[in-house]
Amino acid sequence: MTRVHDMGGRFGDGPINPEPEDAAVFAEDWHGRALAVTLAAGFLGQWNIDVSRHARERLSPKDYAQFSYYEKWISGLADLLVEKGVLSLDDLRGVAVEHTHPLAARVLKADAVASALAKGGPADRLSNTAAQFKPGQTVRTLRPTANRLVDGGHTRLPIYATGATGRILRLHGSHVLPDSNAHGLGEAPEPLYAVVFQASELWAEPEHPADEVVLDLWQSYLEPA
Amino acid sequence: MPHDDHDHPHALLPPEPALRVKALETILTRKGLIDPAALDEIIDTYQNKIGPQNGAHVVARAWSDPAFKAALLEDATSVVADLGYYGRQGEHMVVVENTPEQHNMVVCTLCSCYPWPLLGIPPGWYKSDAYRARAVREPRKVLAEFGVTLPKNTAVRVWDSTAEIRYLVLPMRPEGADGLSEDELAALVTRDSMIGTGLPKEPS
């Protein structure tokens, strides 16, 4: 099993009700603030993107289901700040004694924002792991889906695609493995593929016989079929 | 009933979301860990500078210049970087082309992955449970809710962004757009047409 965030294919969510294209980027001022605080805190360098995704996924299922999108972000961030020792529980309670923080030297200043955002954080790496599969080759995803390094840990094979047979569409090169990187176990880069699945391989009642779903999957999520 | 799971530190912050953000911002600012002016700058960037107009520029160029389009489909990351579109959440770009035989649509079922440098911050619906849950299983019902009906012989290929690859849909150029300038073509490109939940506007 994975966690509550792994909702692809789930029934019961109802209509999507898309807002118009010209709707405000941030529906509420605090949405933009939540995004900005999260990004700025990330630049303190105490975690990576896989750690921060996992922090949101580890919200309790009740919280995850009740929280709006940016509530998940800000709550996951608060948990992470405490877990990584950046803040204490007393800090969150508002009763801590103020002192200069050892990480304050790393604070993201306004004049550094543009270059920091433009720089990005590429995930491709050189790897010692050779590509085992070629485009066109048939593969099967692991079953059950799970982080094989940390029980209950972060993984990016959705449960709807577990044990499914598909075809390698393209090799993206070697990328950081989230299952390792989310847990302080190193980047462990390995080949990453786009794998295409017939909808009928994933769903009992596919809408159309020719429909397909593509997922980006790491080599260790796959076996020859 | 408590709003939060009290085993988690976030439950110590105020429950109301706007106050929760404000409280965390205040704590971090007092400790010198964030600079409120930097937050303003981040918000301004994604509210006013980076948005779907970037992706529309890329699509319009691809519609007007076959060599550009071929290069874009071959190696989107370097081609869009040459236009100045690179950065956070757009480090590895792949562009997928719609054809009469195949319609492409993008989702992130596990979170909200989206090509920020080309489309900005994702709209609310893209991040909703309903879209994340349904797009992979019933894309045609989802498309119908966006007012899109595909021809019977068009297959749907849904891209679930499970890694750091970010996908942009290259929609089909509308009929009757001959002779339009690149800027005029860009005005036909909607954000949703680049996610695959919409189609470009028809030339008037």
Features:
heterodimer; A: 225 residues; alpha+beta; Cyclin A, domain 1; SH3 type barrels; 8 helices; 5 strands; 28% helix; B: 204 residues; alpha/beta; Nitrile Hydratase, Chain A; globular
What does this structure look like?
- The complex is a heterodimer of chains A (225) and B (204).
- By secondary structure, chain A is α+β, with helices and mostly antiparallel strands.
- Chain A has two domains: 29-119, Nitrile hydratase, beta subunit (Cyclin A, domain 1), CATH 1.10.472; 138-224, Roll (SH3 type barrels), CATH 2.30.30.50.
- Chain A has eight helices and five strands; from the N terminus they run H-H-H-H-H-H-E-E-H-E-H-E-E.
- Chain A has helices at 29-42, 49-57, 61-66, 69-83, 89-93, 113-119, 178-181, 199-202, and strands spanning 138-141, 165-175, 190-198, 212-218, 222-224.
- In chain A, helix 1 (29-42) packs parallel to helix 4 and helix 2 crosses helix 4 (69-83).
- Chain A starts with 28 loop residues before the first helix and ends with a strand.
- The mean pLDDT of chain A is 96.
- In chain B, helix 3 crosses helix 4 (66-74).
- In chain B, the strands form two sheets. Chain B has a two-stranded parallel sheet with strand order 1-4.
- With 204 residues, chain B is an alpha/beta fold.
- Chain B contains ten helices and four strands, in the order H-H-H-H-H-E-E-H-H-H-E-E-H-H.
- Chain B folds into two domains: 14-48, no CATH class; 52-195, Nitrile hydratase alpha /Thiocyanate hydrolase gamma (Nitrile Hydratase, Chain A), CATH 3.90.330.
- Chain B is globular, with a radius of gyration of 20 Å.
- Chain B starts with 16 loop residues before the first helix and ends in a 9-residue tail after the last helix.
- At the A-B interface, helix 1, helix 2, helix 3, helix 4 and helix 5 of A face helix 1, helix 2, helix 7, helix 8 and strand 3 of B.
- Strand 4 of chain A pairs parallel with strand 3 (155-160) of chain B, so a sheet runs across the interface.
